Automatic annotation (TrEMBL):
Transmembrane regions listed in the UniProt entry: 60-79, 100-120, 135-156, 192-217
Record-linked InterPro entries: Fatty_acid_hydroxylase, Sterol_Desaturase_Related
PANTHER family in UniProt: STEROL DESATURASE
Domain Fatty acid hydroxylase positions: 144-274
Molecular function GO labels: iron ion binding; oxidoreductase activity
Organism from which the protein derives: Chloebia gouldiae
Name recorded for this polypeptide: Fatty acid hydroxylase domain-containing protein
GO biological process: lipid biosynthetic process
Length: 297
């Protein structure tokens, strides 16, 4: 009975969103996107699209999303939004990070990406424009993928902090006490495989079109680069996502090494009390700010 009620609620929500969508103006980018998509289908094989297309989407998205945070370090005005202001980025650290990223992307992630075509073939995942889900379905699917990945990341990330294995794997990612956006995927190859596995679970559950692979890649990169950016910028649209952790939440994890283990949302840390040190730290900072304001007045 409860299952039927849940299905009815989801169907009603879908119909409501579909009804609202019918009143929205046409997307001016839809036709160019359709033309580009069909051109891709006409000129490239499924293997090329799934493999090299996925690699291009990942690489272009990763480094484009990193650009704002990279530029912030050269803008004095933005320094007031830097979380750890006493630890500026250095060229040496950024170059070291970039070299490790290239190794991980092309020697660890690329072999995994090569399996994308066989995944889509095995599960009969469509590529065509007509089978592509509507934008609100993609948004819901990406949110579902994020929920699943977040649960995987919390428990496996917390395990990687166990004192018996931390120094062998996860310590590499924590070389940077003050993170910056490009450092999001700076990790030991084993960590790339262990934590990266959570990315694929949602795909297996929700994927009904190859476009979800790319949409979820972009969403995941937006999130992980944002929380590693080192900047807590106001009016960040990601803060509109319910229970979103954000840069300040994850920055504390790099600064403190303990707690705040989740990747995207705050509920697992709140449920298991692993955000207690972060909450205490926030309260301490608020008291400092109050004292400073009183002295200024």
């Amino acid at each position: 009975m409860a299952m039927n009620d849940s299905v009815n609620i989801l169907n009603s929500a879908y119909l409501a969103v579909e009804y609202i969508d019918s009143f929205l103006p046409d997307n001016p980018l839809q036709q160019p996107f359709k033309n580009a998509w069909n051109y891709m289908l006409d000129n490239y094989t499924k293997f090329q699209i799934a493999t090299w297309g996925s690699l291009i989407v990942h690489e272009v998205s990763y480094f484009l999303i990193c650009v704002p945070g990279f530029i912030f370090q050269f803008i004095p005005y933005m320094q007031k939004y830097k979380i750890q202001q006493d630890k500026p980025e250095t060229w040496e650290k950024q170059w070291k990070c970039f070299k490790t990223l290239l190794f991980n992307h092309f020697f660890i992630q690329l072999p995994l990406i090569c399996g994308t075509y066989y995944f889509t073939e095995y599960f009969n995942i469509p590529y065509g424009w007509e089978e592509m889900p509507r934008w609100y379905v993609l948004v819901a699917q990406c949110f579902g993928c994020a929920v699943i990945e977040d649960a995987w990341h919390y428990f496996l990330h917390r395990l990687l902090h166990h004192k018996r294995i931390y120094k062998y794997i996860h310590k590499v990612h924590h070389e940077f006490v003050s993170p910056f956006g490009m450092q999001a995927e700076y990790a030991h190859p084993l960590e790339t495989l262990i934590l990266g596995a959570g990315f694929f679970i949602g795909i297996v559950v929700f994927c009904n079109h190859v476009v979800l692979l790319w949409a979820w890649v972009i969403c995941r990169l937006l999130e992980t680069i944002d929380v590693h950016s080192g900047y807590d910028v106001p009016l960040n649209p990601l803060h509109l996502v319910p229970f979103y952790a954000g840069a300040r939440f994850h920055d504390f994890h790099h600064m403190n090494f303990i707690g705040n283990y989740a990747s995207t949302f705050t509920w697992w840390d709140r449920l298991f009390g692993t955000d207690s040190q972060f909450i205490a730290y926030q309260e301490k900072e608020k008291k400092k700010q109050c004292v400073t304001k009183k002295k200024a007045n």
